[in-house]
Design a protein that fits this description.
- By secondary structure, the protein is α/β, with parallel strands linked by helices.
- It has two domains: 197 residues, 3-Layer(bba) Sandwich (FAD/NAD(P)-binding domain); 198 residues, 3-Layer(bba) Sandwich (FAD/NAD(P)-binding domain), CATH 3.50.50.
- The strands form seven sheets. The protein has a seven-stranded mixed β-sheet. It has a five-stranded parallel β-sheet with strand order 10-17-11-12-13. A three-stranded antiparallel β-sheet has the order 14-15-16.
- α7 runs antiparallel to α8.
- The longest helix has 20 residues.
- This is FAD-dependent oxidoreductase.
Length: 459
């Protein structure tokens, strides 16, 4: 039995936040029913995004709504608050909270008291002060960005097909991706595959007209799958006429011209930035212990070092890897560890409330899988290397097993099955980004996409 009524605050609705709350629902079912425990989840979005499926959503293999999991449906015993925690005073057990109603009410930020804290705000894109990046760069971390990028790519093909200006056509058909990790490689490979297929329906745009460029500052891509698989991936991408530029940096994209460190100047209307992530700014607004890299310093039991009743995992946490041979090793901040850490974290909070001993997080890294487009991929699993179709199939099997809820598994599997029987959908629904534009024009106003202060109008 729980010793006293406990208020558990979970900050973040991503992998760690959702899976921890889900685990707590199951482990503390009786206590929740009796009112001895209260779980509050604060998240900016009412859904969890399964990010490994973003490239397939961008390519049209999966519907956007099946890439996300509605939190209120899954966490039916939790109090889900759509908002953002901006500061935490753990000494006073208080979190400063801004919700969608804060501005409407005009009363300032709210304060939420808690007994147990789970910090899982995730990470944010790591950007550099590159001229033009803020104005013209496109991210690839959310489902909104993935679908917007798909619409954007098809729109560029439409522009190239209809213009008589060779300079405009060349810029429209040049796609620059910065960052050779999972997000960059998979996004580029899936979208190039989709655009290559879409080109058959254009009378004057062919695959050979498009330039796809991957820019990576280090000397390798996909380091998670090993050096050999990384070199194999480079070879496969280059065989598809994709330029892979290693040890190269983006120095500017001002004026819609990508300037690279090797001296190339590429007129382009598409610069996709996937060059890493950094800790969420919230972590710096707490009184908790941080590492030199700005992440929360955690113990092997996933408690925050030096703070009682505070826990963390995933991107925000620096967790010691007890399975590693070298001292001081940390678990990499990826989905494989985040999901497993969340289960141990949820169990340990339940153990704490019941006065039971805590568990230690220990998981040997199983390997990595990456998709390079339809029926193409690379994988390294338990030391075994897979290429081509077997790796692509393993990629789908693995992520189908990991996507939350049976509902989502069934829907994704059904879409994959249907996509194997019918042709790809290549329609662009860019108007979804400005749904009121047509009505505003009819009413005598200026469409939102044409307003000078609208950042999307410049894309």
């Amino acid at each position: 039995m729980v010793k006293e009524r406990a208020r558990i605050l979970v900050v973040g609705g991503g992998y760690v936040g959702m899976y921890t709350a889900l685990r707590l629902q199951r482990k503390l079912k009786r206590e929740l029913r009796q009112g001895d425990v209260e779980i509050t989840v604060v998240t900016p979005d009412p859904y969890m995004t399964y990010q490994p499926f973003l490239p397939e959503a961008a390519a049209g293999s999966i519907s956007p709504r099946h890439v996300v999991v509605p939190l209120r449906r899954v966490l039916d015993r939790c109090h889900v608050v759509i908002g953002e925690v901006t500061a935490i005073d753990h000494t006073k057990r208080t979190a400063t909270l801004i919700t969608l109603a804060t501005e409407e009410e005009g009363g300032g930020a709210d304060h939420l008291d808690y007994d147990e804290l789970v910090l899982a705000p995730g990470s944010v894109s790591r950007t550099l002060p590159i001229p033009g990046l803020a104005e013209h760069g496109i991210g690839f971390k959310t489902v909104e960005e993935a679908i917007s990028l798909r619409n954007h790519v098809i729109e560029q093909m439409d522009i190239a097909s209809s213009t008589r200006d060779p300079a405009i056509r060349d810029a429209a058909l040049t796609f620059v991706f910065v960052g050779g990790g999972y997000a960059g490689v998979e996004a580029l490979a899936e979208l190039e595959d989709m655009a290559r297929y879409a080109a058959r329906y254009y009378h004057n745009v062919g695959p050979e007209d498009m330039k796809w460029i991957l820019v990576e500052a280090s000397d390798r891509i996909l380091p998670e799958v090993g050096a050999d698989m990384g070199r194999y991936t480079v070879t496969q991408l280059r065989r598809r006429n994709i330029q892979v530029l290693l040890e190269t940096r983006l120095e500017s994209c001002a004026g819609r011209v990508a300037v690279l460190s090797d001296g190339q100047r590429l007129p382009t209307r598409t610069v996709v930035w996937t060059a890493g992530v950094k800790p969420h700014p919230l972590l710096a607004a707490t009184d908790l212990t941080l590492t030199g890299r700005g992440r929360l310093k955690c113990t092997a039991q996933l408690s925050i070092d030096g703070a009682d009743h505070a826990w963390a995992a995933g991107d925000a946490a620096s967790v010691p890897d007890v399975t590693a041979d070298e001292p001081g090793a940390e678990t990499p901040p990826n989905a494989q560890h985040a999901v497993r850490q969340a289960r141990v974290l949820g169990d340990n909070i339940a153990h704490t409330l019941r006065g039971e001993p805590l568990e230690t997080y220990a998981h040997t890294y199983a390997g990595s899988v990456a998709s390079l487009g339809l029926h193409k991929g690379v994988a390294q699993i338990y030391g075994r290397r897979l290429k081509g179709y077997p790796a692509w199939f393993m990629h789908r099997v693995y992520h189908l097993s990991r996507v939350p809820t049976f509902n989502r598994k069934a829907r994704v599997l059904a879409e994959w099955t249907l996509s194997g029987l019918f042709k790809r959908e290549i329609v662009s629904l860019g108007s979804l980004e400005h749904p009121r534009a047509e009505f505003e024009l009819a009413a005598g106003g200026k469409p939102q996409s044409e307003r000078p202060d609208d950042p999307k109008g410049s894309n």
